[in-house]
Predict the structure.
Amino acid sequence: MSNAKMIQSDISSVLTSQEMAEIDHELEHIPYKSGAAIDALKIVQAGRGWVSDESLQAIAKYLDMSAEELEGVATFYNLIYRRPVGEKVILFCDSVSCWISGCDGIKQTISDTLGIDYGETTEDNRYTLLPVPCLGACDRAPVMMVGDDLITHLDDNKISEIFASSKSGGQS
Amino acid sequence: MEKVLTRNIEPGKAPTDMAAYEANGGYQGLRKAMLGMSPLECREVVSASNLRGRGGAGFPTGMKWSFVPMDDKCTPGHKYLVCNADEMEPGAFKDRLLMEYDPHQLIEGMILSAYCIGADLSYIFIRGEYVVAIERLRQALVECYAKGYLGDNILGSGFKLDMYVHPSAGRYICGEETALINALEGKRANPRAKPPFPQVSGLWGRPTIVNNVETLCNIPHIIDRGAEWFKSLGVGEDAGTKIFGVSGRVKNPGCWELPMGTPIREILENHAGGMQDGLQLKGFLPGGGSTDFLTQEHLDLAMDYNVISKAGSRMGTGTMIILDDQTCPVGMVLNLIRFFAHESCGFCTPCRDGLPWTRQVLEEIEQGRGKTEDLDTLEYQINYIGAIGNTHCALAPGAMEPLQSALKYFREDFERHISGSCCPYHSGKGA
């Protein structure tokens, strides 16, 4: 990350006017600019899928923060992605109730089907697999989210159905 | 039993919108307060109701509110009410239900609670993964503004309140109220040193109350129907009803609204349907991943805060996790410690470095490479990391609760892993 480059770069060449408008909207009820740090990261990520170094520097400048401080915030949170992710992120619950219900085996099936492990993206860029803390659907374990959809009562058949069109997509 | 919190909730049924909520008595508590009760009168009803925080700690809600400076004791400026909807405790799944199916109940509870403490801004701090709840709460807020239940001069009372849904970027520690406040301020969610307590100096340095979803959902009913009615709902020491849940390998996992003080056996057998065929109950965590194991001998205890405390655990969230006799207790504790080690905020050394060390020792034992002295190491860690005061917040001591009780009740299982140099369960679930 080059600081000099950050200072010279024009924010508006990185952030879109809509992104800036959305950040401004959040700032209406926040007394300090840096208070919108997480909101701004989420706004930018919503449109771009992840937060690049360039985006991070532009957001920091927009909020009068140092890029280092914003990086500390960005890397703290599980749902801010500082590396590119696929079109959909699979948030796979590996917490206790899902573990008791056999999630380790399901995770293996996903990995075998898609050819990816935690932190990896399929070659066709459709899916990134990440573990997530307890998704709060323990009575329907094992569970995961694919994009915005919660999928419950997982078993190997369900995994095959969901990822049918991506079968061995990771290796092909 | 009369359903209170779940009276509008039926699995499979559509979520409750404004019309349906009002048709079933919704916003009557709000009307009653706005048209004829002072904030102090409302607060006194809540104090008298003996409502205790449903997020896990069980602190009396009325007492928590009483520390907020009021009127001339408060310097001019904002006060905040924050709903803690960051449900991330392993094994907890009750707040999701309340928010997805009856968002107006929570919002009415928040408007009333804000009135009680004189707050003019309120936030629903909700985990980002709860996309359905976020959407339904936002829709409900639009309906509330249209009806004049939010905004300036609510129902002509002169009371003003704005409310925002704030989806979190995801971290378990955000459930700790001062960490949550830091997250709301756009910072890393490290817990703050206390004092000052948030009631005096919270969000942006202003008086702030943070209450759990289920706690807030009780408020409209308490205001509408009174403290005596609320107290009469409990069948044991504590007042009101509670969403109790059961997960693990039982016949009918789920959650149900039952009287406070319902015996554990009744929840487990009558509602969760008992264990799945071929399995026996070995132990259970009564209130989420950071509570101590209890066993068969505790099944006749009432789910009341003090009763569960006396038995050596905590009622926590009231959502139980069941350990059956074919699931490895060492593996289960390892799963929990992994979670807590991952979710440590990293601020203090005993938690940041201690929990990964504990995880490492447990991994060795579970994978059959454990040594007898590893059990002494675990005891040392429990005594050191588990002592409140050695860590900055309660995360690491909470993580030690299932471990210390597993060593107490299932020590033989740990010893068999070590003497046999393998996990004796061969459950195929791995480690």
